[in-house]
Design goal:
With about 425 residues, this protein is an alpha+beta fold. Helix content is about 45%, strand content about 10%. It is elongated.
Length: about 425
């Protein structure tokens, strides 16, 4: 039986009751391609061939030769109920048997009241989560419990590097290639590049484990090889400390070594000096408030650190430095920023200028922390005491190992030499 409605605009239904076979499908495909090549204008745009072996399943033969398996069914009762079409797959991509199996599965869903086409359409139009939405959820949730300095660093890394590239991109659409390309751009900043991989990994774990998201795909950072970063062992020699001192004196006078004018802010100069004298992290110095200083007991109270709030003992020279700083009305911070009421935000450019003027290479602000601990241990102070002063769980990693091991070996050997020689060793 053959049925046609509305001319060529709607598909023609042919051959009811006959089961489809692979041979028949191949023949239909060849005929459609031949008709398309001949340019027969009277040919139907589509032909529907029902499968006699599977109710409601059709092979839709399109004018170009493609054959698409479809499931056609009415929603509601009566002949006036609308007909819906669910695509099972294209012949060649799936086999006839696979199409029949899928058709039976969808009919089974319909028996329970489901509508396959409606479910498919809802899936297509569902808003897929983006990296921006996930980042907002993370920083408002578990990210809010991060140590303040870590949260600040991660937030800035996301806003400056990940958000411009991926904030509006669906999570499933972010590929390993995309992340590898971004990571490669930080070859000169390997720590930042590796940090971005860590942030993405944490985001994906939060999405899949905590939020139970299913539309995120695999973590695109998993197969990106991280940069190998050697352990920091740089520390300042006493000669380099003297160079820093001379440079800071010139900076306070507003003149470089070559006599050129130098416009570093007083806050930047003072903060740099405190980092050198106290061994603190730069963010701990920048956010230090007047209300946190216990002048009588030489302490800074409730310092916000990576591991929580800590009290720190301060040396006399550091206390004197703090007393010299001007107190600005309405500003609670000791080292003030450019805007009223704000703290110093960063001294990276100032630090580069200081290194250039002092003629010191390969030294970071964080290396000042290493240098402080090493110098303290060289003066016979215990590593435990240095841990308390700089606020680190394991300050031994900051003390230069070669210096410490030489000191221990030299002292021990000297004592044993004295014993062997019969000398009294104090």
């Amino acid at each position: 039986m053959t049925t046609q409605t509305d001319g060529d605009a709607k598909p023609v239904v042919r051959g009811r009751g006959q089961a489809l076979t692979k041979k028949r499908l191949d023949t239909l495909e060849r005929e459609a391609k031949t008709t398309a090549t001949s340019g027969d204008a009277g040919a139907a745009t589509e032909r529907l061939i029902p499968d006699g072996a599977q109710p409601r399943m059709y092979a839709c033969v399109r004018k170009g030769g493609a054959i698409v398996f479809q499931l056609r069914y009415r929603v509601g009762t009566g002949r006036g109920a609308p007909i819906k079409v669910f695509k099972l797959g294209t012949y060649g991509e799936i086999t006839l048997d696979q199409a029949r199996t899928l058709a039976r599965a969808k009919l089974g869903e319909m028996a329970t009241g489901a509508d396959p086409a409606k479910t498919r359409d809802a899936s297509r139009h569902r808003v897929r989560p983006t990296l921006g939405a996930l980042a907002d959820a993370y920083f408002a949730g578990p990210g809010d419990a991060l140590a303040p300095t870590t949260r600040l660093v991660w937030t800035n890394a996301y806003k400056n590097h990940l958000a411009p590239r991926f904030s509006t991109t669906a999570l499933r659409d972010i590929t390993t290639g995309d992340v590898r390309k971004l990571h490669k751009a930080f070859v000169s900043q390997p720590r930042t590049g590796n940090q971005l991989l860590t942030i993405l990994t944490v985001f994906w774990k939060y999405a899949t484990v905590e939020l139970k998201m299913t539309e995120v795909g695999l973590n695109p950072a998993t197969d990106v090889k991280r940069y190998r970063i050697p352990a920091r062992t740089r520390y300042a020699s006493r000669h380099e400390y003297r160079r820093f001192g001379l440079t800071l004196e010139r900076a306070r006078l507003g003149r470089r070594r070559d006599g050129a004018r130098w416009g570093l802010s007083p806050s930047s100069i003072a903060a740099t000096e405190m980092i050198l004298l106290a061994g603190w992290r730069k963010t701990e110095v920048f956010t230090l408030r007047w209300a946190q200083i216990d002048w009588a007991n030489h302490k800074a109270l409730k310092i916000t650190t990576k591991t929580g709030l800590q009290d720190r003992i301060l040396g006399a020279t550091v206390m004197a430095l703090l007393k010299r700083q001007p107190r600005l009305d309405g500003n609670p911070f000791i080292f003030s920023g450019e805007k009223p009421g704000t703290s110093l935000q960063g001294i990276d450019s100032a630090w580069k200028g200081i290194l250039t003027d002092a003629r010191i290479r390969g030294f970071t602000l964080h290396d000042s922390r290493h240098s402080f601990v090493t110098e303290g241990v060289n003066l016979k102070h215990s590593v435990y005491a240095m841990e308390l002063i700089v606020g680190h769980a394991n300050a031994f990693q900051y003390a230069h190992p070669d210096i410490l091991l030489y000191q221990v070996a030299n002292d021990t050997s000297a004592h044993i030499t004295g014993y062997l020689a019969g000398r009294r060793v104090q």
